[in-house]
């Protein structure tokens, strides 16, 4: 049998994710020319059998596919339109009928705007990815592909090599970014909540390893909790698995879209502000699990790791137990799922396809699997788990001390919106945060729990 020669690929962006993708393509027999602004990344790619490009334009010569895996839309523009030393840009040198595959996480409208500027004889696909460095390296990323059916079919040989699962998102160019954005709502909120929960449990003195182990076997478990907390347990912030700057960029995309579309997003907005806080403290280039230090005493930044194996498995300070922590996290996950599904529905996603995206992605949580929020007519008010967790959360208020505030506010005639709170509630949240000092999402969930199922 005659072996079919695989197409030549240009690849720009050889960082933690892109490098793994490019090296995997090389291992599968593709002729790949790679470029990155950071020479060590290029060296690693070349060591794996790839060919180096001196510029994006150099990587675009005689290619059938041109993959862009950079941080944002500004860098994508730079890859395509910046000229090399000879005064030529990648977009000028790309062959006719070649396909640009945009894998960067960009705002949903970016791909459509790029289509308007791009040469008409070049195909364009919007294919953001999710899944982390390990899955990038072994070709099992979740890829949310969108574009014309003809262009998607043409690029299948490449996309199928780097993706498992490979989603084809209906609705045309840009809907891949919509799907990624909606999924990232869960990532954005779950990452910061992992820090808050481990911060709270450590401040009250609970054994951090036991807290982690029990949460991962409970209704409070999330993929992000299981992925980020092990770094906290070893106080390893210097090894950057995923930089804070990356998730902050995603948070900005999530909240900006919500604002423009008039979609209420209280949890997403709080999370973004906490990422901004971390960035203001110089943590942007560190691993995002290092955000846990925002919730620890300034003289004990390694407290989570220090309490690993301390034997305090039952009750911590203020009467807070591991079950208390699990209940708080379960309540948060339930509210986050409700907010996320409402967001995805408003953004035009098919909820049954979105269920599969969450279930197989980094945004998954135990509570998502339990309550099935994608089913027609689902609301928190109809969810038995919501009523149960509400009662637990209200009882938690006593050891956390702001119960007198909540007792008074529950008498107010507040709006009974399904997924958001009123300005009055936000004022109360602000006041409550001064009582609990640091745990902004936790106090939101505890206060919000009184209205979860009304």
Automatic annotation (TrEMBL):
Keyword Chloroplast carried by entry: no
Alphabetized InterPro entries for the sequence: 6-PGluconate_DH-like_C_sf (IPR008927), 6PGD_dom2 (IPR013328), 6PGDH_NADP-bd (IPR006115), HIBADH-like_NADP-bd (IPR029154), NAD(P)-bd_dom_sf (IPR036291)
Domain (3-hydroxyisobutyrate dehydrogenase-like NAD-binding): residue spans on this chain: 174-295, 319-371
Keywords associated with the record: Membrane, Transmembrane, Transmembrane helix
Membrane spanning stretches: 426-446
Record-annotated 6-phosphogluconate dehydrogenase NADP-binding domain positions: 8-164
Protein name (database record): 3-hydroxyisobutyrate dehydrogenase
Keyword Iron-sulfur: no
Organism (species): Sugiyamaella lignohabitans
Residues in the signal sequence: none
A GO MF label: NADP binding
Pfam families with a match to the protein in the record: NAD_binding_11, NAD_binding_2
């Amino acid at each position: 049998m005659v072996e079919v020669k695989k197409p030549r690929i240009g690849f720009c962006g050889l960082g933690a994710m892109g490098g793994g993708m490019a090296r995997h393509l090389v291992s599968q027999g593709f002729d790949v020319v790679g470029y990155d602004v950071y020479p060590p990344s290029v060296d690693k790619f070349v060591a794996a059998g790839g060919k180096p490009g001196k510029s994006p334009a150099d990587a675009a010569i005689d290619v059938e596919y041109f993959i862009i895996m950079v941080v944002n839309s500004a860098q994508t523009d730079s890859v395509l339109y910046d000229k090399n030393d000879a005064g030529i840009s990648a977009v000028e040198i790309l062959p006719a009928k070649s396909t640009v595959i945009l894998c960067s996480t960009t705002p949903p409208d970016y791909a459509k705007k790029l289509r308007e500027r791009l040469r008409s004889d070049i195909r364009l696909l919007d294919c953001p990815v999710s899944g982390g460095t390990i899955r990038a390296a072994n070709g099992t990323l979740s890829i949310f592909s969108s574009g014309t059916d003809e262009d998607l079919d043409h690029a299948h040989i490449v996309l199928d090599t780097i993706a498992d699962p490979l989603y084809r998102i209906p609705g045309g160019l840009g809907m891949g970014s919509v799907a990624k954005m909606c999924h990232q709502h869960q990532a954005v909120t779950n990452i910061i909540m992992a820090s808050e929960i481990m911060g709270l449990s450590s401040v009250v003195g609970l054994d951090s390893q036991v807290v982690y182990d029990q949460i991962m076997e409970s209704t409070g478990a999330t993929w992000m909790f299981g992925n980020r907390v092990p770094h906290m347990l070893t106080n390893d912030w210097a090894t950057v698995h995923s930089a804070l700057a990356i998730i902050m960029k995603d948070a900005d995309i999530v909240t900006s879209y919500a604002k423009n579309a008039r979609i209420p997003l209280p949890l997403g907005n709080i999370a973004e502000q906490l990422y901004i806080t971390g960035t203001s403290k110089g943590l942007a280039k560190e691993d995002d699990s290092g955000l846990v230090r925002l919730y620890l005493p300034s003289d004990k930044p390694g407290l989570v790791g220090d309490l690993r194996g301390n034997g305090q498995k039952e009750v911590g300070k203020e009467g807070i137990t591991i079950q208390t922590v699990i209940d708080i996290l379960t309540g948060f996950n339930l509210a986050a799922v409700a907010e996320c599904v409402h967001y995805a529905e408003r953004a035009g996603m098919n909820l049954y396809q979105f269920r599969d995206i969450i279930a197989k992605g980094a945004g998954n949580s135990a509570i998502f699997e339990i309550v099935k929020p994608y089913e027609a007519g689902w609301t928190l008010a109809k969810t038995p788990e919501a009523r149960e967790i509400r009662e637990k959360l209200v009882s938690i208020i006593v050891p956390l001390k702001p119960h007198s505030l909540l007792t008074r506010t529950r008498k107010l005639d507040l709006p009974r919106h399904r997924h958001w709170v009123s300005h009055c509630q936000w004022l109360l949240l602000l006041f409550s945060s001064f009582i609990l000092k640091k745990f902004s999402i936790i106090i939101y969930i505890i206060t919000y729990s009184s209205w979860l199922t009304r």
